Amino acid sequence: MKPLSSFSRRNFLRTLAVTGLASGSAFAAPTSTAQPFNEVHDLVIVGSGFAGLSAAYAALKAGVKDILILDKMEAFGGNSCLCGGLMSVPLNPKQQKQGIKDSVELMVADMTKAGRGFNHPDLAKKFAENAVNICPMLDECGVQLMDKVIRLGGHSAPRTMVPTAASGGGIVVPIHNWLKKNGVQFRNRSQVIDLLMQDGKVTGVLVNCDYNWKDGSSKKEQRIGSRGGVVVATGGWGQDKDFIKTTMPVYSLLECTSQPGATAEMLKALLKSGCLPSMLDMYQLGPWASPDEKGAGPGSFFADYAFAEGMA
To answer: How far is it, in rounded angstroms, from Cα 112 to Cα 214?
Structure first.
């Protein structure tokens, strides 16, 4: 293992960008602290979906060994387990094998059109350029993909890879198992309720242990320190009606296909720590549910595939 002093924040964040899946991170450089911690790790990651898993993978590749991933729910994976696992990646190996023409520029153009021009151009370009670099991670972790490449709605070329399990669980489970095999620690029912700060830097997290999402109870509180910073990878807050009311009140009346743990406590902690997210009043809405179904049922998959070719 490389000494922690050589653990470069810049290199780590660069590796995160290369994985293409990691997003929403809040990283603080290593700093000494006098706060009493119950335990300390080299890196703490909050959230065990695509972003948290790829962050852990990137950290391992950067030489970090003592990594702890926290998740407040009973099951790991969050919304990433529930989604269809469709990954739109320009210039991926399956495209090239089938002779499908695509480019980074075309992907950026599709993203900008779908985003109505609200996209951050530099981030969109970085995503499109680096998305293909998730493929070695998927291969190494044993993620099984279908041979076909499909074209989803809004995409100008077939570029979407599909796991053989036809769900995000087909991606999350193999990566989770690979990370555990390589020493990453996972801890569920651990609700992070605040970021611990010293001298303007994040030094750890405050955790409700043995958290029960059904009634909000927990057995004890712990302070977990991190020598190398904290990665916040907790996804969205579509089930947090109270928080949605503060940004887009009418949307709080809508049903949501997210799992029950998609709430805003970590977003609130980030705001409290001085982070300034953008576009908090913009939400993704789509035909991914039916009044006859709770959550994302068969209607979701029909919409995903049908919208690529248009509906008569």
So the answer is: 39
Helical segments of the chain, H only: 9-19, 50-61, 78-82, 93-97, 104-114, 121-130, 134-140, 169-181, 241-247, 265-273, 298-306
- At 27 the pLDDT is 37
CATH, domain range 4-77+180-235: 3.50.50.60
List Cα–Cα distances, 103 to 22, 89, 109, in angstroms.
22, 10, 10
For 53, residues 6+ apart whose C-beta sits below 8 A from its C-beta are: 21, 69, 80, 172, 175, 176, 179
Question: Rounded mean pLDDT of 267-277?
Answer: 90
Q: What percent of the chain has pLDDT over 70?
A: 81
Tell me the HSE value of 149 on the side-chain side, using a 13 A CA sphere. Answer: 21
Residues in Cβ contact with 219 at an 8 Å cutoff, skipping those fewer than 6 apart: 209, 210
Mean pLDDT on 121-133: 96
Domain boundaries, given as residue ranges, for the chain: 4-77+180-235, 86-166
23/7 Cα distance (integer angstroms): 20
Task: Yes or no: say if 77 and 172 are a contact pair by the CB < 8 Å rule.
Answer: yes
pLDDT digits (tens, 9 = 90+) for 24-74: 333 333 333 455 899 999 999 999 999 999 999 999 999 999 999 999 999
